[in-house]
Specification:
Keywords: Membrane, Transmembrane, Transmembrane helix. It comes from Actinokineospora globicatena. This is YtkA-like domain-containing protein. Pfam families: YtkA (PF13115). With 132 residues, the chain is α+β, with helices and mostly antiparallel strands. Helix content is 17%, strand content 52%. It is elongated.
């Protein structure tokens, strides 16, 4: 093998190694985001975000910090690609805490997760940006 061929091989191996390291280290860190609406403080938590089905934990409190009993949904939207997926209904786990099982994020890239809180006669939305 020529000197030039060896150098090209080293470059290719280094690129592949870098891509593998990036691939293995993405999605391992939990995501914990906070946003507010006119009435609510909303916290969104994903333990192991990644492509495919995700479990999204949501906390909703009023402005005094008291837990809120409401109907909560999570709607994933990939704005850049024009993808809006069916909202996932979150199930209450305890006062002010909800879990949206199997929230699908079918591809890597930037997502917006819209958490909708419906209570009595009001509906409010908190939007969270997330990169998978």
């Amino acid at each position: 093998m020529t000197r030039r061929g060896k150098a090209a091989l080293i470059v290719v191996v280094a690129i592949i190694a870098g891509l593998l390291v990036a691939w293995w280290t993405t999605g391992d860190d939990p995501v914990d985001l906070r946003a507010g609406t006119a009435t609510y403080a909303v916290r969104l938590h994903l333990v192991d975000p990644g492509v495919g089905a995700n479990t999204v934990d949501i906390e909703v409190a009023d402005r005094t910090g008291s837990p809120v009993d409401a109907e909560v949904t999570v709607e994933p939207v990939m704005v850049d690609m024009g993808h809006a997926l069916t909202p996932t209904k979150a199930t209450p786990t305890h006062p002010g805490h909800y879990r949206a099982e199997r929230t699908d994020l079918p591809m890597a890239g930037p997502w917006e997760l819209t958490v909708t809180v419906r209570r009595a006669d009001t509906t409010e939305r908190a939007v969270f940006s997330l990169i998978i």
